[in-house]
Design a protein that fits this description.
361 residues; alpha+beta; two-stranded antiparallel ribbon; disordered C terminus
Length: 361
């Protein structure tokens, strides 16, 4: 076994000089792997006479054991060295403050959405949701939009390329259609979500947020609709006498239809709820059109109801004095720090929904 005596010091030297765990692993594979030096020597034992095979096998086993012991010892030493290095470099300054100076904020849109949904939940409405990408039936046809309606034109709606007329929904009304198709009256839902239209100025953005409501039963009338909206306004704005006006309007999916304005003023560049200074349109509403009921498989001779749609972003502007809608989507941390809400101290039903109810902004 002269070859063993020749290889042993060479291999032990390579092991002792290994500078990393990866280098040590490469040495192990080259010596003890399937094609390693000791493994190849083991394969030659079968060609030796029995007496020589026994002696040579004993020598090789001792050699293998010695190399394995050396590899394990070196591995332990390298792991300890790596641990000591990390302990020396990855230190933590325990004198640093626990809470960082920079803190995230809840976006006004998220806050107002939660406030609205909380109020409607107290009024007995269930939550319903639907997809942002809609087909023509749910977004227009079922809602009684005629083929020539402006909403179906490219300048008003984002149409999806390479699809069969699919669009980014222009309102959350398709959720109402899906509810009427899949549920039996009575129905009482609100549908929050993102909506998309080709529009951009101080009070319009290409992507905005809506909450739409729907009530379907056998007795609901326009008086119930006005009562629901008036009660919601008082609760949301925490003002007993919110200046509201209903103006006759037209929507393909409601008849009669109305738009609702809130009295407001612009003082020092901020919106403020106030009578006699001006008006801002915040929602549309009306009694569900009989054609819409028919399209959803409901008999208009038996069922009736009302629907409404809120612009969440505009309600945030009015309640929290935000002058320009475009700032909602600029991703400006200075703006968010000013108008946003501290996550663990946001307005609630118990502490008050307004910023004056205890929220830190």
């Amino acid at each position: 076994m002269n070859k063993v005596e020749e290889l042993k010091p060479q291999i032990l030297t390579r092991i002792n000089e290994a500078s990393s765990l990866q280098v040590l692993e490469d040495i192990r594979v080259s010596v003890l792997g399937k094609k390693g030096e000791i493994t190849e020597m083991m394969k030659t034992l079968g060609s030796l006479p029995p007496e020589e095979r026994k002696l040579a096998g004993q020598v090789l086993n001792e050699f293998k054991t010695e190399i394995t012991t050396a590899l394990d010892a070196k591995k332990t030493a390298l792991e300890e060295a790596e641990l000591n290095r990390r302990l020396a470099t990855e230190t933590i300054d325990v004198t640093l403050p626990i809470r960082p100076k920079q803190q995230g904020r809840v976006h006004p849109v998220s806050q107002v959405m939660e406030e609205m949904l909380t109020i409607f939940a107290q009024m007995g409405f269930d939550l319903a949701e639907g997809p942002d990408i809609e087909d023509d039936w749910h977004c227009f046809e079922a809602l009684n939009f005629p083929p020539s309606h402006p909403a179906r034109q490219m300048q008003a709606t984002f149409f999806m390329e390479n699809t069969d007329g699919n669009v980014l929904r222009t309102h959350t009304s398709p959720v109402q259609i899906r509810a009427m198709e899949n549920q039996k009256p009575p129905i009482r839902i609100v549908a929050p979500g993102r909506t998309y239209r080709c529009d951009y100025d101080m009070t319009h953005t290409p992507m905005f947020h809506q909450i739409e409501g729907l009530v379907i039963d056998t007795e609901t009338n326009m008086g119930h609709l006005k009562g629901v909206l008036a009660d919601f306004m008082k609760k949301f704005f925490e003002v007993d006498d919110v200046p509201i006006r209903f103006r006759p309007s037209f929507f393909p999916f409601t008849e009669p239809s109305a738009e609702v304005d809130i009295g407001c003023s612009r003082k020092n560049g901020e919106f403020k709820i106030e009578s006699g200074k001006g008006w801002m349109e915040v929602l549309g509403c009306g009694m569900v059109h009989p054609n819409v009921l028919k399209n959803c498989g409901l008999d208009p001779e038996v069922y009736q109801g009302f629907a409404f749609g809120f612009g969440v972003d505009r309600f945030a502007m009015l309640k929290y004095g935000i002058p320009d809608l475009r700032g909602f989507f600029d991703a400006d941390m200075r703006w968010l720090k000013h108008y946003g809400f501290v996550p663990l101290d946001i307005p609630t039903i118990t502490s008050g929904l307004s910023a004056n109810g205890g929220a830190k902004r």
